[in-house]
Write a structure and sequence with these properties.
- By secondary structure, the protein is of the alpha+beta class.
- It is built from 3 helices and 4 strands.
- It has a 4-stranded mixed sheet with strand order 3-2-1-4.
- A hairpin with a 4-residue loop joins strand 2 and strand 3.
- The longest helix has 9 residues.
- The protein is globular, with a radius of gyration of 14 Å.
Length: about 70
Amino acid sequence: MVERVTEETKKAESPVVIKKYANRRLYNTETSSYVTLDHLCEMVKEGKEFEVHDARTGEDITRSVLTQIIF
């Protein structure tokens, strides 16, 4: 049985990429819009997977941002 991979299944499998810029703004690459920590908090509550990357270095800073949401 061959499974078809569609754009919808690709989106469901891969986490949303959030870029954090030097001016501390967060950019959702899926919706092409700026978001806040409150938006990311809602994404956590909804069970949406995301990764946060430093826009300049590409470093994964998801844990650091999640810590900011908690406190």
